[in-house]
Amino acid sequence: MAGGFAEAGADLELVGITKRFPGFTAIEELNLTIPAGSFFALLGPSGCGKTTTLRLVAGLEDPTAGRILIGGKDVTTTKPYQRPVNTVFQSYALFPHMTVLENVAFGLKRRRIADPLGKAHEALRLVELDHVAQRKPAQLSGGQQQRVALARAVVNRPALLLLDEPLGALDLKLRRQMQIELKDIQSDVGLTFLHVTHDQEEAMTMADTVAVMNKGQIEQMGAPEELYELPKTAFVANFLGQSNLFTGTVTNSGKESIIVDVAGTKIEVPRERAQRHAGEVTIGVRPEKLMLHTSAPKPTPGTNVIGPGRVNDVSFSGVSTQYSVTVPKLGNVIVFAQNMVFGPVVNDGAEVWLAWTVDHGFGLLDDPADGPRFEPDTDTKSIAVQRREKLEEELEEA
């Protein structure tokens, strides 16, 4: 059969991919290479183009421009069933009248693969569900159905497995469990996984490489830890967790660090962790890196201090407590403090100072003079309506 299935993962390459729908562009000049055998996550908000990208790879949509290569072979114009690709959807899409074993063996039988039932049993053992092989999908829990759908996809040995928000329908505890299991399965079978999700924790837990997507383009790509610890844009800094961002002018640019004047407060950032080293810049620090002090700490080399500020909100979340602190001229600053003692460290209304190690700061590539680079997230349908209304206005004016 054309596009036969592989025994190992293949690399995926997207070259200059553009996808336009009537009224809006979903993807603009996307270039992306996913190495064979890796677990790759495409992360972004609704309407960013990630699901469209997955559908293009699966062959369910045709690109307006660009090429799609799987294992070095151009599949841009190849039919979906001829591509070495399988997809696991959020809905599972199991056949209700078939047993679990028959569901998993279905694709093998259609392709006349030898010993389809034996291979189906092997796939079910991989997801630890061989003991329910004779049950119908309705007799299984949501998590078990999800694993059956995964077994059905993996049994075909696709060179590339696409995961479209596969854990979205599961409850929190089961989702966490499945994240670990998915990663283990990917390591065991050695296939290339492309996982599309809007869940930041899910992407960072499972993927070797994460690409953060926004408005049809990739903002930043790298290892999960790299993206979290060293975001390059305001969008990445705030989409992957929370960040405290400050804008100011670089007053000193040395070999080791830069000094930024933020409304009269000097904040130091390591030079290698800053994307811009002159003029007006945006710098940031993650909330969990901050320390609360009830009195002004002594100036210490390698430490930034801001304050005094006043606590305006205290929120307990189990593992940590979130403090919202208003600092004059600097605005609202968020602090995450691990709950080492019973009750909050400080209460609403308390006067505090905030400190963090210089090495934990980062500087963004964004130019503050450009203003907000990112519009509020909007789904693709809304974008299409907005574009149409704007076009109608232009036609009326003409």
Report on this structure:
There is one protein chain. This protein is α+β, with helices and mostly antiparallel strands. It has 2 domains: 12-228, Rossmann fold; 242-370, Nucleic acid-binding proteins (OB fold (Dihydrolipoamide Acetyltransferase, E2P), Beta Barrel). The chain is built from 9 helices and 20 strands. The strands form 4 sheets. A 6-stranded mixed beta sheet has the order 6-7-8-3-9-10, sandwiched between helices. The chain has a 5-stranded antiparallel beta sheet with strand order 13-12-11-14-20, with no helix packed on it. Strands 15-19-16-17-18 form a 5-stranded antiparallel beta sheet, with no helix packed on it. β9 (209-214) and β10 (217-222) form a beta hairpin. The radius of gyration is 25 Å and the shape is globular. 36% of the residues are buried.
Give the % helix: 10-25%
Architecture per CATH nomenclature, i.e. the level-2 architecture of the largest domain: 3-Layer(aba) Sandwich
- Any idea of the CATH class of the largest domain? Alpha Beta
Report the sheet with the most strands, covering strand number, pairing sense and barrel closure. Answer: 6 strands, mixed
Broad structural category: alpha+beta
What is the number of helical segments per DSSP (H or I, 4+ residues)? 9
Major beta sheet, strand line-up: 6-7-8-3-9-10
Return the average pLDDT rounded to an integer. Answer: 85
| Count of the domains | 2
Strand content: 25-35%
CATH topology of the largest domain: Rossmann fold
**How would the global form be characterised?**
globular
